[in-house]
Every structure is written in C-alpha cells, then in structure tokens.
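Lab notebook, page 48
Experiment: co-folding of the full assembly
Goal: obtain a model of how the components sit together before planning crosslinking
Operator: M.T.
Materials (sequences as entered):
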Amino acid sequence: MAEQTLRDLLRAFAAEREWEQFHTPANLAKSISIESAELLECFQWSEEGDGERVKEELADVLTYAYFLADRIGSTPESLIREKLKKTAEKYPIELARGKSAKYDQL
Amino acid sequence: MAEQTLRDLLRAFAAEREWEQFHTPANLAKSISIESAELLECFQWSEEGDGERVKEELADVLTYAYFLADRIGSTPESLIREKLKKTAEKYPIELARGKSAKYDQL
Amino acid sequence: MAEQTLRDLLRAFAAEREWEQFHTPANLAKSISIESAELLECFQWSEEGDGERVKEELADVLTYAYFLADRIGSTPESLIREKLKKTAEKYPIELARGKSAKYDQL
Amino acid sequence: MAEQTLRDLLRAFAAEREWEQFHTPANLAKSISIESAELLECFQWSEEGDGERVKEELADVLTYAYFLADRIGSTPESLIREKLKKTAEKYPIELARGKSAKYDQL
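Observation: model returned without errors.
Model output:
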C-alpha cells in the first residue's frame, strides 16, 4: 500500500507542474544517467562519499526510475522481482558464491 | 509491508552468494551508473526503446539502487519522499508549470 | 597534421556507412555516456581493469568525442586547450596542490 | 607534433598541482563518466544543447580521456585508429550502410 501512495504522490507532483510532457521514456532514461553520475561524483576521488549528499543523489536516481517504471505501466517492485528470478538463474549460488565475475565467466 | 519483503529478498539474494563484500557504496554507485547507461542504450539512436529490454535495464538500475539504499540504512521510499519535499520547494508550482528549466533559471 | 588526417579518416568512416544522419549532437552525447559506462565497467568491482578492454572502451569514448567535436565545428585539441585555461584559473597551483577538492571548496 | 605538445601541457598541468596521485585509471574512468553525464545534461529535455556549454563539457570528457590514454601508455590517436580497424570489420560498408543497428543484428 505504501508504494501505491508514493506512486500517487509522484504522479501528482508531475501533474501539478505539467511535467508529464517532458517525461518521455527517452528523457527519463537520460535523466537517470545524469543523476547516477552525480551520485558517482560522491565517490570520484575516494571510496568514502559524504553521507548526506549520497542520500540526495540516490533519491534523484530513484525518483526518475520510479517515474519511468510508472510511465511504462509497471512498478519498481515487480520489475525488480521479475529480473531477480532471471539473475538467480544466471548466477547459481554454488557457482557464484564469493565471486564478482560475470555469469559467462563463472 | 511489500517493500519490507523485497528488502529481505534482496538481502538473501546477496547473502547466499556472499556478495555483500562487493556491495560497498562506491561499487554500488558505479554499478548504478553502468546499468543506467545500458538503459540509455535502448534510446541511443531513437526515441523508441524496445519495451522488454527497457524493463530489464530499468530493473537493474533499481536493484542496485535498492541495495545502496539498504547499505546506507535507508529505504527507497523514505529517500524519495524526503527529497521530493526539497524539490517541491525549489520548483514552486506557479513558477515551474510547463517548464523544463532548472530551478535557478525559473 | 596528424589530427587533420584522423579527422578525415573518421569522416570517411561515417560517410561510407551513411551514418552522419545518426550523428546528431544529442545522439553523440548519449553515445559518449554509454561508452563511458562500458569503460567504467572495467573497474566495477576492482581498481584493476583488464588492460586490453580498457583500451578498447576508451577508444570508443574518444571516437564519439571526436565525432562530436567535429560536428560542432571544433577539434579535440582546441577544446581541451581552451578549457584548460579556464580550469587553471579555477585551480591556482598554490591553492590546489595535492588536493582533490572542488574549486569552490579550496 | 601538435598532440605531443598537448600531452606535455596536460602532464605539466597535473604535475604542478600534484594531481597524478588522484589520476589512477579507475578514478579517471569515473571522471569520464561523470563529465559525460554533464555533457548529456545539455540534451536532457531537448535535442538542442547550448553551444557554449556543450563545448565545455565535451572538453572535460576529452581532457580526462587524454589523461587516461597517457596513463596507460597510449595516445588518443593510436587508440582510435586501432579500434576503427576492428569496427570497420564488424560493420562492413555494404551491410551497415544507412543503419544504426548493432553489428550482431545487421
């Protein structure tokens, strides 16, 4: 139920500002990349990122990702769950344990 | 409750594979950028992305974003809600309506 | 002279394939981001990237960056030189020495 | 010869500021991604980017790419030329003409 409400909050936020016109899938994909890089910037020269800024940049990535999920008629939760099943098959526990290698190199 | 359960699912997925050691904030930030670019690739030469691939790449972005939210002791929902309040202040409805300009150029 | 020749090589490469139509500034900017992320992937879980792959991915970034420089009527060398002057002013040697901080935090 | 001189200029710029310590391949790869996203931001909501800002952001991408090329003992020109040969083989003129499809879908 919480997610339903957040979706409505985001929809209202965009609708009030008449921003749906800008939220094409292509523009949202660009926006996610842009915000991801701002998140990455927290770790540009060091492994330690400033906590408060990390939160804000991650929030921006998530916000656009939620908008895109909604735009393509899905939800973050269902997208993640569906993909996780496929990833679990590509990375069987016995093979993948303790390794960061790609599935085709396990 | 749904989100709680998804968090546990993701935690178990990483724990079974002993992948927590790789999931430092810096590595997760890199991973989010990498997956965002794969999402962007769906729109590299055209405004229309292949629906099925968009879903998968967006799922990858979201999955790493959820891992990072959990790693820094937060949740996607609280991060988004908190940031949305700030964004709403930077983009008052009257000023921002129908415009894609940055807040400092409104 | 070397750069002139490389520019012609790249122009011919695109012209033969009739790819100029795809090389709008916006598409090239997306392509640079996409290839940058493939370069970043070499360092996703480790500080050490595979040398051969790093070369190839960096080459892809550079190729699209050269295409974009040409598309906007400039050259990589003049763009870099011009920007370097500005950066030198923002980061005076005495202030910036040995620090990775942003100029507004020096 | 021009490129040789630019390389020396960049080396001196970093050396004077004692920044070589920050210019590990991994950090430079992150920096290229970060600057690429700032370039992409010029085209976030529109196909038309502001010309002056595009130049500056592209210059930043190129500068870090040049630093990385030098760091791995190569030059932008040789990297591009070498890769272009491989790309030409993957995209034969007859097959690729007028198409933006990936080589494995031609």
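Interpretation: The mean pLDDT of chain A is 94.
Next step: discuss with group before ordering constructs.
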